[in-house]
TrEMBL record:
One GO term of the biological process aspect: inflammatory response
GO function terms (MF aspect): histone H3K4 monomethyltransferase activity
EC number: 2.1.1.364
Primary localization: cytoplasm
Keywords, comma-separated and alphabetical: Cytoplasm, Inflammatory response, Methyltransferase, Nucleus, S-adenosyl-L-methionine, Transferase
InterPro entries the UniProt entry points to: Rubisco_LSMT_subst-bd, Rubisco_LSMT_subst-bd_sf, SET_dom, SET_dom_sf, SET_MeTrfase, SETD3_SETD6_MTase, SETD4_SET
Entry keyword annotation includes Cytoplasm: yes
Reaction catalyzed: N(6),N(6)-dimethyl-L-lysyl(20)-[histone H4] + S-adenosyl-L-methionine = N(6),N(6),N(6)-trimethyl-L-lysyl(20)-[histone H4] + S-adenosyl-L-homocysteine + H(+); N(6)-methyl-L-lysyl(4)-[histone H3] + S-adenosyl-L-methionine = N(6),N(6)-dimethyl-L-lysyl(4)-[histone H3] + S-adenosyl-L-homocysteine + H(+); L-lysyl(4)-[histone H3] + S-adenosyl-L-methionine = N(6)-methyl-L-lysyl(4)-[histone H3] + S-adenosyl-L-homocysteine + H(+); N(6)-methyl-L-lysyl(20)-[histone H4] + S-adenosyl-L-methionine = N(6),N(6)-dimethyl-L-lysyl(20)-[histone H4] + S-adenosyl-L-homocysteine + H(+)
Keyword check for Nucleus: yes
Organism: Certhia familiaris
Quaternary structure, from the entry: Forms a ternary complex with TBK1 and ZNF268; the interaction with TBK1 is ZNF268-dependent and leads to TBK1 monomethylation.
Family: Belongs to the class V-like SAM-binding methyltransferase superfamily. SETD4 family.
Name of the molecule in the record: SET domain-containing protein 4
Length: 439
């Protein structure tokens, strides 16, 4: 009996969609074959993890067998890790030891990455360098037009990040020049700004935390970085739990899962309980439906809703500042945070209630009127942020039409702001119900 063509093509489409969601195997790609061979030479035993391209997360690792809670995901031998020890045992070592004032562990690693990338075929780290991203989407790498569309608190941090890399570059020029004997080409062209930005982003987005003993040849900044080839292909999910540490017995960096994972599914690790602004700032991506996500309320926005005629305004602001209640004020999936409401209650204290401010910071209620006014102000701030976010999303869609070259960067900011809009709308709903309950 002939099968209907429609059913067959529907099945095929379904199968294709499933394989697309499960990830497209990349093990056959030359760069991964070379990387696996290189890792094997350094003592890495082939794991159940295979590189694949996933819809939504991009490049990652999937498992060829079902994983149970308590299973070892990956064990990467010390020889495979790139640390400051690696840098010191290279030809850069002698120059770093002699250089005064001492360079930071971070700059030493950046220098090594740039030098090895420049060496091309001659670099023993080439198989790893070949699979590293060519570009990054950390805020420091975004175009000014895109940075302007970030939420205000993140925009400020993005500009600080950019400034920090620029300062690192300026302060390192003399050190880079001192390396000239190692190169035939001018060090100014090798160690240029974009090379340093790439190296800095590689370390900032991909290193694992690993404490190293203090060395005299480095500045006092903590030496806690290690680049972990292959392991760094694992993507982040806020919904999984893992245990990760360097095992002194096996001399390997190990990751153990506390979650289950079905055969052929993408294996995730958790970089920490970060909100989306932090994920974008530090790693250059946004996680959809992130339970840790929140929208920040800046001190400027907060104070817009309080009369400058309030005689105790200055004292109230001073109290909030001294007790750290002018930062980390947020709206989340469950509405305004306790910190935000506490700050609003202090600012809404009537003159005769002012002496009770300590009780409020401890979580006490002073009056029903104070509680109601704090909730009412929270609703106004939430509405203001909703409108600001909607305006931002409108600007993004206009810029996407006008600037084709910025589409990828803009899509990232659009994801962030769309998620924030969802949080604010949920908070507005919660506040509406709370306000109804208290009236």
């Amino acid at each position: 009996m002939k099968k209907s063509r429609g059913r067959t093509s529907r099945k095929r489409r379904k199968k294709h969609l499933k394989s697309f969601m499960d990830g497209v195997n990349c093990s056959h790609k030359l760069e991964y074959i070379k990387l696996k061979k290189w890792l094997k030479e350094r003592g890495f035993e082939d794991s159940n993890l295979k590189p694949a391209e996933f819809w939504g997360t991009g490049r990652g690792l999937r498992t060829t067998k079902a994983l149970q809670a308590g299973d070892l995901i990956i064990s990467l031998p010390e020889k495979c890790l790139l640390t400051t020890g690696t840098v010191l045992s290279s030809c850069l070592g002698g120059h770093i030891v002699k250089w005064k004032p001492p360079v930071s562990p971070l700059l030493a690693l950046c220098t090594f990455l740039i030098a090895e990338k420049h060496s091309g075929e001659k670099s023993p780290w080439k198989p790893y360098l070949d699979v590293l991203p060519k570009t990054y989407t950390c805020p420091a790498c975004l175009e000014p037009d895109v940075i302007n569309l970030l939420p205000k608190p993140l925009k400020k941090k993005a500009q600080e990040q950019k400034r920090m890399i620029q300062e690192l570059f300026s302060s390192s020029k003399a050190f880079f020049s001192s390396l000239q004997p190692l190169f035939t080409e001018n060090t100014g062209t090798i160690f240029n700004y974009s090379a340093l930005e790439w190296a800095w982003c590689t370390i900032n987005t991909r290193t694992i935390y690993m404490k190293h003993p203090r060395r005299e040849c480095f500045s006092l900044e903590p030496d806690v970085y290690a680049l972990a080839p292959y392991l760094d292909l694992l993507n982040h999910s806020p919904n999984v739990q893992v245990k990760a540490a360097f095992n002194e017995q096996t001399r390997s960096y190990e990751i153990w899962t506390n979650s289950q994972c079905k055969k052929y599914q993408e294996v995730f690790i958790c970089y920490g309980p970060h909100d989306n602004q932090k994920l974008l700032l530090e790693y250059g991506f946004v996680a959809m439906d992130n339970p840790h996500s929140s929208v920040y309320v800046s001190a400027d926005t907060l104070l817009k809703y309080f009369s400058p005629l309030d005689k105790q305004r200055k004292a109230k602001i001073s109290i909030l500042k001294d007790h750290g209640f002018l930062e980390n004020l947020t709206f989340g999936w469950e509405g305004p945070s306790w910190r935000l409401l506490t700050a609003l209650k202090v600012l809404r204290l009537a003159a005769e209630e002012f002496a009770c401010w300590r009780r409020i910071l401890l979580g006490d209620v002073t009056s029903a009127r104070n509680e109601q006014q704090a909730l009412g102000t929270a609703a106004k701030i939430c509405q203001f942020l909703i409108e600001e976010t909607q305006h931002g999303l409108l600007q993004i869609s206009q810029l996407k039409r006008d600037k084709e070259n910025l589409k990828t960067q803009l899509a990232l900011v659009e994801m962030l702001r769309s998620e924030e809009l969802k949080i604010l709308q949920k908070s507005a709903e919660i506040l509406c119900n709370l306000n109804l309950a208290t009236t």
